[in-house]
Amino acid sequence: MTMLLIIGISQAVFSLINSSQFKDFYLKINIQKAEIMTAMLKEDVDYLLCKGVKIHKLVKMENMLKEVIDVSPELQDISIYDSRNDILHLANKDDAIDFVRPQQNVKKIDQSHSEMDPDFQLKKKLIKTVEDQDAEQSIVEGTIITNISKQVLFDKIFEIRIDSATVLIISFLFMVELLIMIFRIIQSSARTDQSTSKIEFADIRPVTFIFFFSFDLCISFLPLYMEQLYVPMFGLSKDLVLSLPISGEMLFAGITTIIAGWLLDRINWHLPFIYGLVICSIGSFYSWLSPDAYHLLFSRCLTGIGYGLSFMAAQGFVVSYTDNKTKTQGLTQLFAGLMAGSICGGAAGAMIADRIGYAPIFFISGILIVVTVLYTLYFMRAGFKKKVVKKRIDDESLEKDSKGLKLIFKFIFNRNIFSLLILGILPTAFSIVGFINFFYPVYLNRLGETQSNIGRIYMIYGLCLIYIAPLLSKFVDRSDNKKLFIVITGLIGGIAFTSFYFVEGLWATMITVLLLGISSSFDASRTYALNLKITKSLGEGIAMGIFNLAEKIGQVVGPIMFGLFFITTSVNQTMAVFGIIYITITFLFMFTAQSDKKLKMQGR
User: Fold this and answer.
1) Which among 87, 106, 215, 567 is least surrounded, fewest beta carbons within 10 Å?
2) Which range of residues forms the domain containing residue 53?
3) Residue 179 lies in a domain
4) Degrees, nearest 5: CA angle 441-579-242
5) CB 487 within 8 A of CB 588
């Protein structure tokens, strides 16, 4: 705790020092720029005055001033006064005004702008040079005044402070995960000293943190990078093409989860996990080198294969080292590490991309995934020893004849499993990935928001899963009605999208992401399914593979469907309608799936 407090205080002090230094540097640079521009304008006006043009006859001078303002966002206004200090011409961000001609409809302005803070103002005399008896005489005809915008400076300082706050949150999360990692390493060393190979489900958290920090460095800008490399593809609209990398990644991840689920019932978790990491790393390096949209799409599909293997294997680890009483806590530990890594990676990647561009982030991602492989090989080796698993009768049937395939179909079309897949897991995955991974980054980018702000909003979702979900998981584990929490997840998710009917833009996005984060914190779909008798008969590995496949199908379709929202007449109304549909689907699940208590009474 002391270490976290020191980090917080240090970061706050650094932020104040950084802001002060930036203000001094900003003023110095922009005063120099304003001096150059003002000197050029003064030279032009002085030339006209020397040619005999009266200062009150400088026709359309305000338009010339406006041209300078338009290319200089750091300037507030430029004005010209006569020798009596009466304003003649003014240009600012909104207007170009000629005060000399009374027939013009001159808007009322703040006449005190010529008396602004002298630190933000530059004045130069307009001089007419005349020859008098072989001598030059300089006559002051007026003044040109340039005001530097305080608001732009304050906005820049605010951005710096927001960046500092973001870094503080990332530092806090990173330090917490680092302390957890150190604690697990110390425990691992203690186990080695005691000649025991015991490993616990919480050991997966540091691994998933490092992996998803690396993997999600590009999460907030992948559609935007696709837009940079855009070429027409498959006759699709541009908005749909932008969604293809995410959809392709999720499609191949979904296909891979089925294979990984089948493998996890037969081999230990670490082989598919490590192979998946290696494939992810190769895919990230390929994304870095991609020359066009086709190569980027293929590289993300390759990355999806690795992602599916590793993510499924991590869940297999949790299932192997938990029981019915600790399963939700184990999955929560996994997802807490996942989301902490995703938050830190997404925000860090967004801020770095603002400065060095999108492509290098994929290279950094590939390197860090290699680090994840090394960590796993060294610190998780106690879990590499294959656990002795008692063969199930159904497993033997699956190996010898076609009864296993029949059992899979029986499992999928079970009333409760089918309702969960179609009305629970699928729409939740559809909405979360479609909105968070694709829709809102593109939506805010088109509204002019910076990449840093886009990355920061993603943090809201992750923070909910890190700090709210672990608290709720204890209630979920203790509750005998897991179905209730699935319904709550859907209702809050649907309400999230209806917020677009009342507000729009940045605020609507923030509200939706926050509510989606809260709804995901209630999710108990896997716990509900894993407690069913038919799931245990099929095998938890294969069952989890089917759940993940349904989830990936939703994640594939989500970005494509949300891409279609952009071509509707009103994006906000479309989002609200989608929210109502989502709520309706949740009610269908509530009426079709059986409650836990009823299933327990029936022995199902």
Assistant:
1) 567
2) 30-103+115-149
3) no
4) 30
5) no
Three-state secondary structure call for residue 87: strand
The count of residues in the chain is: 604
Whether residue 174 lies inside any domain: the answer is no
Q: Residues 145, 134: contact at Cβ < 8 Å?
A: no
pLDDT of 134 reads: 64
Instruction: Please check whether residues 403 and 534 belong to one and the same domain.
Output: yes
* 413 and 534 housed in the same domain: yes
Element (H, E) at 141: strand 136-148
Are 206 and 138 contained in the same domain?
A: no
φ, ψ at 603 (rounded to 5°): 70, 30
Cα dihedral: 272, 274, 278, 279 (round 10): 20
Which of 432, 442, 440, 71 has the alpha carbon at shortest distance from 228?
442
Question: Which of the pair, 427 or 199, is modelled with greater confidence?
Answer: 427
Q: Which of 280, 284, 260, 274 is nearest to 375 (CA)?
A: 274
- ∠ Cα 178 179 182 (to 5°): 85
Sequence-distant (6+) residues with CB within 8 A of 236 are 244
Q: 158 in a domain, yes or no?
A: no
Tell me: do 295 and 429 sit in the same domain. Answer: yes
Instruction: Quote the radius of gyration of the chain (alpha carbons, Å).
Output: 31
Residues 259, 132 share a domain: no
Q: CA 82, 87, 89, 93 torsion: positive or negative?
A: positive
- 3-state class of 403 per DSSP? helix
Task: Please name every residue paired with 121 in a beta bridge, in sequence order, or none if there are none.
Answer: 147
The 3-state secondary structure of 287-325 reads: HHHCCCHHHHHHHHHHHHHHHHHHHHHHHHHHHHCCCCC
Query: What DSSP state is assigned to residue 388?
Result: P
- CATH label of the domain that carries residue 308: 1.20.1250.20
34 and 142 in a common domain: yes
The sign of the dihedral angle between the CA atoms of 482, 541, 548, 412 is negative
Give the residue from 365, 382, 31, 328 showing the smallest Cα distance to 196: 382
3-state helix, strand, coil in the chain (%, to 5): 75, 5, 20
Are 142 and 51 within one domain? yes
Q: Tokens 């159904």 sit at which residue? A: 394
Work out how many domains the chain is built from and give that number: 2
**127 and 228 fall within a common domain:** no
Residues whose CB is less than 8 angstroms from the CB of residue 506 and which lie 6 or more positions away in sequence, other chains included: 444, 447, 449, 453, 457
Q: How far is CA 18 from CA 22, 89, 155, 558, 560, in A?
A: 6, 38, 14, 41, 42
Closest alpha carbon to 537 in 404, 420, 422, 419:
404
Q: Please, are residues 507 and 549 in contact by the beta-carbon 8 Å criterion?
A: no
In-domain check, residue 162: no
Whether the pLDDT of residue 286 is over 90: the answer is yes
Please give the distance of CA 433 from its chain centroid, rounded to a whole number. Answer: 11
Q: Is the pLDDT of residue 388 over 60?
A: no
| DSSP label at residue 593 | S
Candidates 410, 455, 516, 412; CA nearest to 220 is: 455
245, 563 in Cβ contact below 8 A?
A: no
**398-449, pLDDT tens digit by residue?**
454 456 677 788 888 888 888 888 888 888 888 888 898 888 888 888 888 8
The pTM of the full predicted model, rounded to 2 decimals, is 0.67
Measured between alpha carbons, how far is 135 from 152 in angstroms, rounded to an integer?
A: 46
